[in-house]
TrEMBL record:
It comes from the Bacteria. One of its GO terms (biological process) is copper ion transport. Its main location: membrane. Pfam families: CopD. Keywords: Cell membrane, Membrane, Transmembrane, Transmembrane helix. InterPro entries: CopC/D, Cu-R_CopD_dom. This is Putative copper export protein. The chain crosses the membrane at residues 6-26, 61-79, 86-108, 120-144, 165-185, 205-224, 245-269, 289-308.
């Protein structure tokens, strides 16, 4: 169990470090401070990735995993010495490739296997970027809370990071919902099997944790982000710093803990509830399933778009966050 969690983090954390430096944070050449905090995580992460890969290679002789880990470690070392956005993007791409390679089938035997492979890849990539982002930004945010003398710059930079990561998380959530519902359907025949089978009970625990994580994400999107936008619009630097540097990282650290707890449950999901209950396997991937999936994609996309649109348009004159630290 622990090995699978560590392996996932050995890919998701480098991916998020690269993502933050390359795409989320203001470049250091333009006065960005978040990138500096994130780069402080690069060297210990590189060391951990290299040690973990070497240990796994000794145990399993997985050459591809070792190559990916060494590339990640080298890229992270470079990032510690200089804030290169191309190198950061390459680190993220390498980590994603490393997560995807074990999921690719040697051959595509049927439409069912193709659909399963594609949706599994979507599920893993979305989880990699989302959970990795929570861990990295939570750690960097806590480091940033201890910095003094750059509050205004930090508030501006973190506001951009939270705004952009919210978009990444939104797409990740959409991918997880769509792929997760398909994968759950293939493994669980009825809601009752969530309680009557071992697989179902572990899946139920995972779903509860995912719902908690979604709730925290909704709080970020619907409450914190509108307050940050209002404070920035009003030029209220103190409130921007309070929200982005002091409050938001604490919420994200809590989310990261829940995310790691979800990872700890995943190794227990072996087999399927259908098999444990003596049920036949899920039906084939036919036109009906495709139509249902397309409708689900459209529904999820519409729900996420509506939620984002409502969060962006906070009421004026009420609910504004002022420097006193309260809403009025």
């Amino acid at each position: 169990m622990a090995a699978e969690v560590v392996h996932f983090l050995s890919l998701s954390v480098p991916a998020a470090i690269g993502l933050t430096i390359a795409f989320l944070a203001i470049p250091e050449a333009r006065g960005g401070v978040v990138s500096q905090n994130v780069r402080r995580l690069a060297l210990p992460t590189a060391l951990a990735v290299a040690v973990w890969a070497a240990a796994q290679f000794v145990l399993s002789a997985a050459v591809s995993d070792l190559v990916v880990a060494l590339l990640l470690a080298a890229g992270l070392v470079v990032l510690r010495t200089r804030a290169s956005r191309p190198v950061a993007a390459a680190v993220t791409a390498t980590a994603v490739v490393g997560a995807v390679i074990p999921l690719l089938p040697a051959t595509v035997g049927s439409l069912d296997s193709l659909a399963r492979s594609v949706l599994t890849v979507v599920h893993v990539v979305a989880a990699t970027l989302w959970v990795g982002g929570l861990v990295v930004l939570g750690a960097a945010g806590m480091l940033g809370r201890r910095a003094r003398g750059e509050e205004a710059a930090a508030g501006r930079d973190w506001a951009q990071v939270w705004e952009r990561f919210s978009v990444v998380a939104l797409y990740a959530v959409g991918g997880l919902i769509i792929s997760g519902m398909w994968l759950a359907w293939t493994h669980v025949g009825t809601p009752a099997q969530l309680l009557t089978t071992a697989y179902g009970r572990y899946l139920a625990v995972k779903l509860v944790l995912v719902v908690a994580l979604l709730g925290a994400g909704a709080y970020n999107m619907r409450v914190l982000m509108p307050r940050i936008r209002l404070a920035r619009r009003d030029g209220d630097t103190r409130s921007v710093v309070r929200l982005t540097v002091e409050h938001f990282p604490v919420v994200v650290v809590a989310e990261a803990v829940v995310g790691v707890a979800i990872l700890a449950v995943v190794p227990f999901l072996r087999g399927s509830a259908r098999a444990e209950a003596g049920w036949p396997g899920a039906g084939p991937f036919d036109a009906t399933v495709f139509a249902s999936g397309a409708a689900l994609v459209a529904l999820v996309a519409l729900a996420l778009w509506a939620g984002t649109r409502q969060a962006r348009f906070a009421p004026r004159g009420r609910g504004q966050y002022h420097s006193h630290g309260r809403v009025r």
